[in-house]
Amino acid sequence: MLAEVLRGVSTDVLQSTQPVLLRGLVRHWPLVQAAQQSDAAFCGYLRGFGADTRLSLWRGAPEIDGRFFYNADFSGFNFRHETLAFGALLDELLADTADTLYLGSTEIDRCFPGLRAPNDLPELAGFRPHVSLWLGNRMRVATHFDQPDNIACVVAGRRRFTLFPPDQVANLYIGPLDLTPAGQPISLVDHAHPDLDRFPRYAEALRQAQSFELLPGDALFIPSQWWHGVESLDGVNGLVNFWWRQSPEFMDPALSTLLMALLSLRDLPPAQREAWRALFNHYVFDADEQTAAHIPPAARGLLAPLDEFGARQLRTLLRNRLNR
What we know:
Elements lengths: L1 H7 L11 E3 L7 H8 L1 H9 L6 E7 L6 E2 L11 E6 H9 L5 E8 H4 L18 E7 L2 E6 L4 E8 L2 E6 L37 H7 L1 E5 L4 E4 L4 E6 L4 E8 L9 H11 L5 H16 L22 H15 L2
Parallel strand pairs: 3-7
Antiparallel strand pairs: 1-11, 2-4, 2-5, 5-6, 6-13, 7-12, 8-11, 8-13, 9-10, 9-12
Helix pairs in contact: 2-3, 3-4
């Protein structure tokens, strides 16, 4: 099925700017086939790929009601980080522990040798995706965005995804940028139980939202920078995702630019901010082949097309400026 997607409608799917539901895309995977038998069969299959491997996970007490979030005063979080043997995690999931457990984005090739080969999307090999396993029980992960494109493949349990277009950021009530559960800013709204009295603009975000409930074997294409909240709806839930970037690997994360702009632009007088808006539009957002056409090619410097060598030079220049 994916081969048909890639050959026939790749522009519509893999380069889509909208989410795309792919029912049954990976139902042939051994992981999914085991999950269709039972939770025990699913965990038994996974156990064969490194039961003694020690992994980092999140553990939340029953009081968090499955929601990984900040603590009451936003000085930290309502869960703790823990290292546990993979087999012990599987045992707890099967025992239906009262704690909320979450093994997030764990690289399959490094941590579970042999698991990927029979549970792969080989047609994506040209994209050099980063492939991860996610595992846990009933829980919900706050709405956030990822820079890479993503195919999220549900392999056990049911998952509900609630997605919002990038332009809804002002209606999602985003939390701190410098203290985040997993590196990406998150919405402070509980997408499963939104408090519209406290967060009234979220009603508009909901009008723009798209919701998908996936069964084992289903997959969802999530375009870059679409905000998404995720709910795991069963006692044993598993997901394998494929992340890839449509930009060269030498490019830095764009979030770094946002943080730098907070340092250098946000608090300028309004007229100066508008002047910088014009410069950013000219050199970044509206840049095309005419932007530097009036400069001889050999003299374009940073305005020339960026390559790996140019990226290293630019990084060095930035470091020197920041260290002054």
